């Protein structure tokens, strides 16, 4: 069975400038909105606001990425992501047990898998979050591979005219 998840992608250096911590290129990415659950509207300023509003979270760095690309994941990478995420739930969010942490990790990964499953490999995704009175609301936008910059012709090669010297 092929499982699709998302990997961070960086087109330029903008993520390095707009986030406190930018994800490394090619990390497995999740929405990870739970990282922002303790923030109030007054806490969401500057680079923290940018991470909240438009950042996927890369693992293991916990850095943010504006864009992710749908990709297939191998079983050993899947287990690494699952373990990394469950460890985060245990150590940073005080999950009451390893079983609960693994269940929370599975839920987060399955959510991302559901988002990616409906798209072709190579599709770019973005996330938008807003903080409402009843919690965080997420929306996702996709740019199909054919419309993404991966398929755009950046330059062409033109034969030089022969010049006699």
Would you mind describing this structure in some detail?
- The chain is of the alpha+beta class and 165 residues long.
- It has one domain (3-151).
- Helices cover 31% and strands 25% of the residues.
- The protein is built from 4 helices and 7 strands, in the order βαβαβββααββ.
- It has helices at 14-18, 46-54, 75-91, 98-117; strands spanning 3-9, 28-30, 56-59, 64-65, 67-73, 124-132, 135-143.
- The chain has a 7-stranded antiparallel beta sheet with strand order 4-3-2-1-5-6-7.
- α3 (75-91) crosses α4 (98-117).
- The longest helix has 20 residues, at 98-117.
- It is globular and about 80 Å long.
- The termini are far apart.
- The model has no long low-confidence stretch (mean pLDDT 89).
In the residues, how many domains can be counted?
Answer: 1
Strand content: 15-25%
Kindly state the number of beta strands: 7
Radius of gyration: 19 Å
Short key terms for the protein model shown above:
single chain, 165 residues, alpha+beta, 4 helices, 31% helix
List the helices and strands and how they pair.
Blueprint: E1 3-9, H1 14-18, E2 28-30, H2 46-54, E3 56-59, E4 64-65, E5 67-73, H3 75-91, H4 98-117, E6 124-132, E7 135-143
Antiparallel strand pairs: 1-2, 1-5, 2-3, 3-4, 5-6, 6-7
Helix pairs in contact: 3-4
């Amino acid at each position: 069975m092929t499982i699709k998840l998302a990997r961070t992608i960086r087109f330029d250096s903008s993520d390095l400038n707009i986030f406190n911590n930018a994800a490394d290129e090619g990390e497995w990415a999740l929405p990870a909105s739970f990282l922002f659950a303790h923030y109030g509207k007054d806490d969401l300023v500057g680079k923290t606001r940018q991470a909240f509003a438009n950042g996927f979270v890369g693992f293991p760095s916990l850095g943010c990425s504006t864009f992710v690309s749908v990709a297939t994941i191998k079983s050993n990478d899947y287990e690494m992501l699952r373990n990394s995420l469950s460890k985060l739930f245990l150590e940073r969010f005080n999950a009451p047990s390893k079983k609960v942490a693994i269940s929370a990790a599975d839920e987060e990964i399955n959510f991302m898998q559901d988002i990616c499953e409906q798209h072709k490999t190579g599709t770019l995704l973005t996330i938008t979050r807003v903080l409402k009175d009843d919690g965080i609301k997420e929306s996702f936008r996709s740019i199909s591979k054919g419309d993404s910059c991966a398929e755009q012709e950046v330059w062409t090669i033109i034969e030089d005219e022969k010049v006699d010297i």
